[in-house]
Amino acid sequence: MKTYLTFDVGGSAIKYALIQEDLSILDKSSVPTPMDSLEHFVETIGEIYDRYASQISGIAISMPGIIDPQKGYSYTGGALRYIEKLETVKVLQARCPINITIGNDAKCAANAEIGFGNLKDIQDGAVVILGTGIGGCLIKNHQVHTGRHFSAGEFSFMKTNCLDPIGLDYAWSDRNGIKGLLKRVQEELETDKKMSGKEIFELANQGNEKVIKGIDQFSLEVATQIFNVHIIFDCEKVAIGGGISAQPLLIEFIQKNLDAIYDNLGFDVYKPEIVPCHFRNDANLIGTLYQHLETYK
């Protein structure tokens, strides 16, 4: 059975794993993400490659930015400013002479669900990643839909207020990222206390009615935008990812609010099923492997 080295490049850490084709993870760790230079980034990947070179059949990388996965080209690199308008695969192969693929992080998370998770049985759908911002991906004909300019499914920038179409304060990423959840809960509790998503849901699961109300309002806005995505794209299922997707209460509230929207439509239209992403912290590591296997099958 072949083994692959997969990377999940984030703004603070690069996670990596040695994974077999049956998804068995043989080794897994992380290193800090170099923020200073491309040379430092390439050498960081190269040093990890050196340790596993004799064991692996390829390298698969999930990373931020607008990416052409077929050409291995990065138009942007998100927080990694040195990865911009770069033949990323060619640069990396000069240090690591092996088959290498790269893909956008949110699209890799979707690939994990298409290949091995809760979207294996669909043709058309979407993935919504609720994190610091909103990651997103559209799925068309059982494949990640990149779009003509490789930016399809960039849900973060969707506007939620026509009265402020220019400012980012009312972008979906602001309203329904973790910051948006905290804001709803703070408003209900009438406090400025900072809390993590984990703390918020601990309070909700203990029955705190104000926190539950804040999560419900947050979930209504998520459901509204999912409805809008569905009306445009006709999704069979929408998978919710990100750390807070592990909370059953969140999925329950999003589905409840989506049901309420449909109950008041006044016309008949298909309602997509809301499911949590099967893969959570390892989604990008597994999804980038699926993309790699599909590329070299």
TrEMBL record:
Pfam family name, one? ROK
Family in the record:
Belongs to the ROK (NagC/XylR) family.
What is the name of this protein?
ROK family protein
State the organism named in the record.
Coprobacillus cateniformis
| Phylogenetic classification of the source organism | Bacteria, Bacillati, Bacillota, Erysipelotrichia, Erysipelotrichales
